[in-house]
Amino acid sequence: MRVDGGAGGDLAGVGDGARLAEAQGYDGVWAAETNQDPFLTLLLAAEHTERIELGTGIAVAFARNPMTLAQSAHDLQRFSGGRFLLGLGSQIKPHITRRFSMEWSHPAARMREMVMALRAIWATWNDGAQMDFRGDFYTHTLMTPFFTPPPSPHGAPPVFLAAVGPMMTAVAGEVADGLLAHGFTTSEYLRDITLPALGAGAEAGHRSRDEVTISLPAFVVTGIDEEATATAAAAVRGQIAFYGSTPAYQGVLAHHGWGDLHGDLNRLSKQKRWPEMGELIDDDVLAAFAVVADPDDVAAALLARFGGIIDRISYYAPYTSPPDLWSQVTTDLQTA
């Protein structure tokens, strides 16, 4: 199993952080588009590393158009020596329409077409194909020599799609190279909902499900002592509560019979009663979404839960812990 870390924080420290992740043996690092541009982050990470893969996890697809995404990804693929992974997510309607002031409609169909448009643009730049993509959402029919970048000797970057529900998961199976499973998931949901939808999408695309790499940021609760573990548990409860309050993710809770929990969390979120939300995540819910284990047992617990399901993993640990706490976990997962 491949193990990834994160690339983020202040841009001034990204280079050193990526270099450290590479030295610690991580296979890749992902940069999220939360409060900074992931492409800028990964440009710095690429400059300071030689081996490690570099992915956007995620870049907000519908805040951009295929041409701007293709350009950023193409540049990073060339600059990094072929180490770039383009991870895309749809985000949710309020962010697309109210934060980015962009259009929202038919997200699964739109994402499918966006990936196809990206591949058409890269084929023009890398292989000299005619620029003639015409879809329902995007049209790209003009590419002059002045605006054509040099081809990438490494080919087009792999495209990963973030998905929770079956429709977007099927799109990933049909047209993407990888699936970025959401941290707000469980092994049961992955087996019962995600894998069948991914397989159906792959069949529609006349390909094998095994051609799609599955990556997961797995919630982990651990610590060097009881106090640290309690702090970690509180942080993870809060993060699970935040996701559980979002209507787009309520299907995961409903799958476990916790549909009413979504309604309670959503109500509290609208009242901005954030601390109280975490208190609603009891031990059963926490254990379903997160591996809770001592540091020496984390790797075995992750493998028991996700072995045979996912191909690469990262630690979703929204709390401070010693960097060396994860070193043995990483080694154990990579050699399993």
Describe the strand arrangement of the main beta sheet, using strand numbers: 1-2-3-5-8-9-10-12
Structural class: alpha/beta
Q: Please tell me the overall pLDDT.
A: 96
Major sheet: 8 strands, parallel, barrel
Instruction: Provide the number of structural domains.
Output: 1
> For the record, what is the CATH homologous superfamily label?
Luciferase-like domain
Determine the strand fraction and express it as a percent band. Answer: 15-25%
Tertiary shape: globular
Order of helices and strands: EHEHEEHEHHEEEHEHEHHHHHEHEH
What's the SSE blueprint?
Elements: E1 2-6, H1 11-23, E2 28-31, H2 38-47, E3 53-56, E4 59-60, H3 66-79, E5 84-89, H4 93-99, H5 107-127, E6 133-134, E7 139-140, E8 159-163, H6 166-175, E9 178-181, H7 187-204, E10 213-221, H8 226-244, H9 250-255, H10 259-270, H11 274-279, H12 283-289, E11 290-292, H13 298-306, E12 312-316, H14 327-335
Parallel strand pairs: 1-2, 1-12, 2-3, 3-5, 4-5, 5-8, 8-9, 9-10, 10-11, 10-12
Antiparallel strand pairs: 6-7
Helix pairs in contact: 1-2, 2-3, 3-5, 5-6, 6-7, 13-14
Explain what the structure shows:
This protein is of the alpha/beta class and 336 residues long. It has a single domain, classed as Luciferase-like domain (TIM Barrel, Alpha-Beta Barrel), CATH 3.20.20.30. Helices cover 48% and strands 15% of the residues. The chain has 14 helices and 12 strands. The chain has helices at residues 11-23, 38-47, 66-79, 93-99, 107-127, 166-175, 187-204, 226-244, 250-255, 259-270, 274-279, 283-289, 298-306, 327-335; strands spanning 2-6, 28-31, 53-56, 59-60, 84-89, 133-134, 139-140, 159-163, 178-181, 213-221, 290-292, 312-316. The strands form 2 sheets. It has an 8-stranded parallel beta barrel with strand order 1-2-3-5-8-9-10-12, surrounded by 6 helices. Helix 1 (11-23) links the parallel strand 1 (2-6) and strand 2. Helix 2 runs parallel beside helix 3 (66-79) and helix 6 packs across helix 7. The mean pLDDT is 96.
